[in-house]
Write a structure and sequence with these properties.
Blueprint (H helix, E strand, L loop, with lengths): L1 H24 L15 E4 L2 E4 L4 E7 L2 E6 L5 H11 L5 E3 L4 E4 L5 H38 L5 H34 L2
Antiparallel strand pairs: 1-2, 3-4, 4-6, 5-6
Helix pairs in contact: 1-3, 1-4, 3-4
Length: 185
């Protein structure tokens, strides 16, 4: 019974780490990545559709993203969606291709992005602590039902805390790596 709780706890906390890594991909680092535009939705015949689903999105160099729509009539809609997304650059439209030119980041911009990364990691830590609380509640429920001994309950709570501590360390390590990536010029 306790092992099931431990496994569920680990799975849930791993999902929180995965979500944090996905969030980190939306942050800009020294060089541009196409993940900056992943969250942008384009009106495709009345349906909000991911930008990557309506055209080719590639990073042509460290400061440029090129978007080639599969249908010419989408160029203006894509341009409008990018402007509304407010990602920090204005799209350049030549009629068939849209280019996004990202200027080099200033020290202040890098520090602001590091603050965003710290906020994301704090959110992940809160999620992990909430998972710990749920797991502890499940263990305490077993205690009330007298399904396991008091010693096992104490060991179970200690094990959940160890698991939690391990995942908090993983969050801190992921933040350190991302922070170094952002601040690298």
């Amino acid at each position: 019974m306790l092992n099931e709780i431990f496994n569920h706890t680990k799975e849930s906390m791993e999902k929180s780490i995965d979500a944090l890594r996905r969030d980190f991909t939306t942050l800009r680092t020294g060089k541009v990545t196409t993940s900056i535009v992943d969250h942008i939705k384009v009106d495709y015949y009345g349906t909000p559709t991911a930008l990557t689903q309506v055209g080719n999105v590639i990073a042509t160099d460290a400061t440029t993203i090129t978007i080639t729509p599969w249908e010419k009539n989408l160029v203006n809609k894509i341009e409008k969606a990018i402007q509304e997304a407010n990602i920090g650059v204005n799209p350049n439209n030549d009629g068939s291709v849209i280019k996004l030119f990202f200027p080099p980041m200033t020290v202040e911009q890098r520090q602001n992005i590091v603050k965003q990364a710290k906020a994301m990691s704090e959110k992940a830590k809160v999620a992990i602590r909430n998972i710990r609380k749920e797991s502890n509640d499940q263990v305490k429920k077993l205690e009330k039902e007298k399904a396991v001994s008091e010693d096992e309950i104490k060991k179970g709570l200690d094990e959940i805390q160890k698991i939690t501590d391990g995942y908090i360390i993983k969050v801190d390590e992921a933040l350190k790596v991302k922070e170094a990536d952002i601040l690298k010029v």
